[in-house]
């Protein structure tokens, strides 16, 4: 028999664990960069400059890796095709940027390379926050739908109990309180959307 391998899409938990590992590598690279940069500023030797350049290149790669890992996390939870295009564009940019880091030959070039990513950061952050907000709004809408179904069931049950002569005053107060909280959540949801 012929076995055809099919791509397996990683789940969020796997991607999140990968993100945490990538974040640890980023922190290590950042700390090394800060240390070597300070040594270069203090001593100003060619050796210190070369070590600082090596460290900054590793840091830039680690920064691109952490951003790519974060994009991967966002993709696993992405509910909207609009964000898919934006995430793909940012991912393509970061992959291209990461590939160009190896040819950096001076600290000035490294600074220019870092500025390329930093100039896109605010727009990427806005996109990420919009996507995360869309996720939360989707969850809230699901909860509201479940609440509506439960509320209808509770109304039916209270009518049945009332017809049997049972006291349902406490249940009615609870349901009224729950509906008031639902109205409050709808107002907060409108605020979140705006």
Low-confidence stretches: 1-9
* Quaternary organisation: single chain
Largest sheet: none
First-to-last CA distance: 56 Å
List the helices and strands and how they pair.
Layout: H1 12-43, H2 46-77, H3 81-100, H4 107-163, H5 169-193
Summary keywords:
194 residues, mainly alpha, 86% helix, 0% strand, disordered N terminus
Any overview of this molecule?
It is a single chain. The relative contact order is 0.08. The chain has 194 residues and is mainly alpha-helical. The chain has five helices and no strands. The model is unreliable at 1-9 (pLDDT under 50). The chain has helices spanning 12-43, 46-77, 81-100, 107-163, 169-193.
Compact summary:
The chain contains 5 helices and no strands. By secondary structure, the protein is mainly alpha-helical. Helix 1 runs antiparallel to helix 2, helix 2 runs parallel beside helix 4 (107-163) and helix 4 runs antiparallel to helix 5.
């Amino acid at each position: 028999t012929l076995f055809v391998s099919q791509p397996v899409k990683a789940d969020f938990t796997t991607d999140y664990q990968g993100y945490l590992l990538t974040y640890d590598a980023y922190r290590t690279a950042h700390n090394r960069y800060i240390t070597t940069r300070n040594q270069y500023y203090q001593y100003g030797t060619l050796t210190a400059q070369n070590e600082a350049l090596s460290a900054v290149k590793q840091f830039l790669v680690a920064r691109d890796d952490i951003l790519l890992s974060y994009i991967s996390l966002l993709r696993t939870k992405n509910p909207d095709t609009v964000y898919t295009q934006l995430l793909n564009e940012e991912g393509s940019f970061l992959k291209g940027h990461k590939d160009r880091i190896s040819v950096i030959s001076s600290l000035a070039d490294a600074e220019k390379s870092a500025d390329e990513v930093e100039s896109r950061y605010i727009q990427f952050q806005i996109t990420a926050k919009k996507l995360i907000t869309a996720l939360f709004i989707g969850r809230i809408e699901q909860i509201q739908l479940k609440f509506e179904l439960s509320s209808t069931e509770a109304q039916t049950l209270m009518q049945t109990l009332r017809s049997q002569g049972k006291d349902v005053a406490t249940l009615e107060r609870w349901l009224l309180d729950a509906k008031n909280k639902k109205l409050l959540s709808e107002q907060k949801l409108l605020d979140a959307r705006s």
